[in-house]
Amino acid sequence: MSATRIVLLGPPGAGKGTQAVQLAKHLGVPHLSTGDLLRDELKRGTALGLKAKTFMDRGDLVPDQVIIDMIHGRLEGTLGFVLDGFPRNIVQAQMLDKVAIIERVLHIQVPKAEVIARSIARRMCESCGRNYNLLSSPPKKEGVCDVCGGKLIQRTDDTREVVERRYQVQYENEIEGLLSFYRAKPGVLREIDGRRSVDTVFQEILRIVAN
Ligand code: AMP
Description:
It is built from 9 helices and 8 strands. The chain is of the alpha/beta class and 211 residues long. The chain has a single domain, classed as 3-Layer(aba) Sandwich (Rossmann fold), CATH 3.40.50. Helix 2 packs across helix 3 and helix 4 runs parallel beside helix 5 (90-99). The structure holds adenosine monophosphate. Adenosine monophosphate binds at residues 12, 34-35, 38, 55-56, 59-62, 67, 85-86, 88, 92, 157, 166, 170.
């Protein structure tokens, strides 16, 4: 039987979102992206969204308690999920450990220079949230979503300066701690070479979650 409680780790721009959407659909479980949930809060102008905005704009981590309060209710009692962008540090991993047994943690590795170039070339549909990349997966028509016809925008935190800060603060500083946490759980952590095509990476992920 396939694993259904899955965490994707990796630097911003490694392709976690793209893989998470496909994997969740394949497994029939929810895709939970804390970044998407925060952007949704912001769009709706909630207090949580406004509080998170200053951290997001700078490329810093939103305080753990805000993230934990936001995601806690969506994790408990569910049969499965693909988590994308959570946990981002040890405190969040420990919280997750209390509410669910994680079966697979997939660490998608891509070198720094490549993820920075990818993030800057990233575009997102403002209506349906689908991701594009001007380098590797451009839309058929410039500036327009292939799926819903919505307008493609650049995330305000995808400028070079913020992307570099996100890489350092959210990935470089935290990843070793997270990897040691999950290495201590036999058979859970798997490394994936994320430099390959979206489809090749997806096929490997499917093999890993299937057994
Ligand atoms: P993402 O879409 O995953 O790149 O997230 C966008 C921004 O939301 C990040 O740069 C952080 O500021 C914030 N964020 C998303 N997930 C988390 C998390 N698990 N912990 C703290 N901040 C987060």
